[in-house]
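Support request from a user on the community tier.

User writes: "When I paste my structure tokens into the form, the page sometimes reloads and wipes my input. The last time it worked, I copied everything first. Here is what I submitted, just in case something in the input itself triggers the reload:"
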């Protein structure tokens, strides 16, 4: 229950402070992955939650399970559109990958991640980007190809405990 409250409060705060523009095309991997990043439950704590950004054990386990069947274009599809997160058959894996990608970017590429979030914050309402626009913005912010970034992302996440 606490994790859900923090998750939903993260969405509200992100909109209230201008991190995300209301009714703008904010990729769901960003908004949901960031909310999951903040919610990280701690079942060892009497309050059920201890800190922001701790390893989310259940999402990490789900992401590792997904790796066995993860297609090579998984990162590309997650960034390009919201289909996987919206699809109930794929959502559990997509949420886990969204959390993992946010976790990785915050820890390994914080300056580029902030630049990317600033790009998203400037989006106007009710304008929906094409997949290629989303990919271009992502590549521009992180300055590497998707294949290279994906390989680094996977290497990093294999070390997370």
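"...and here is what came back when it finally went through:"
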């Amino acid at each position: 229950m606490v994790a859900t409250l923090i998750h939903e409060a993260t969405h509200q705060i992100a909109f209230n402070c201008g991190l995300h523009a209301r009714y703008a095309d904010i990729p769901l991997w960003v908004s949901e992955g960031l909310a999951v990043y903040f919610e990280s439950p701690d079942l060892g704590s009497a309050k059920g939650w201890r800190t922001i950004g701790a390893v989310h054990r259940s999402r990490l386990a789900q992401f590792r399970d997904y790796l066995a069947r993860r297609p090579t274009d998984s990162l590309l599809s997650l960034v390009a559109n919201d289909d996987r997160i919206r699809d109930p058959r794929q959502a559990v894996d997509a949420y886990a990958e969204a959390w993992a990608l946010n976790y990785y970017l915050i820890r390994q590429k914080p300056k580029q991640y902030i630049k990317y979030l600033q790009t998203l914050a400037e989006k106007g309402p009710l304008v929906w980007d094409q997949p290629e626009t989303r990919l271009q913005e992502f590549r521009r912010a992180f300055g590497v190809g998707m294949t290279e970034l994906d390989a680094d992302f996977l290497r990093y996440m294999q070390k997370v405990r």
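Agent notes: The reload is a front-end session timeout and is unrelated to the input. Residues 26 and 120 are 6 Å apart (CA to CA). Residues 2-17+25-159 form one domain. Escalated to web team.
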